[in-house]
UniProtKB/TrEMBL annotation:
It holds the Pfam family zf-CCCH. A zinc finger (C3H1-type) spans 30-58, 68-96. Keywords: Metal-binding, Repeat, Zinc, Zinc-finger. This is C3H1-type domain-containing protein. The lineage of its organism: Eukaryota, Viridiplantae, Streptophyta, Embryophyta, Tracheophyta. It comes from Citrus sinensis.
Amino acid sequence: QRVYVPPGNNKREEAEEAKAVELEVYNQGMWKTELCNKWQETGSCPYGDYCQFAHDFTELRPVIRHPKYKTEVCRMVLSGGICPYGHRCHFRHSLTEQERIPVPR
């Protein structure tokens, strides 16, 4: 017997979609998503066209992030420490009002 499952309620379909997003994020990488420091400082770069960083604002590409990117608080920040990854951390560094309230132990 076959059962009709309306679109959007199929767990397998949702899992396949999530995998496709992850693969797209992985394949794109970070190629030309940030400006080249050397190019910004000196106006030239020893890697030229092979540099993985952008040498002009027109070369910059948007970064495709995983849907869960920066949705959870960084453990280092939550514990009151300083995150060694800084702005490159995959977790949030800002706390909501509720997250700022100390949890009783």
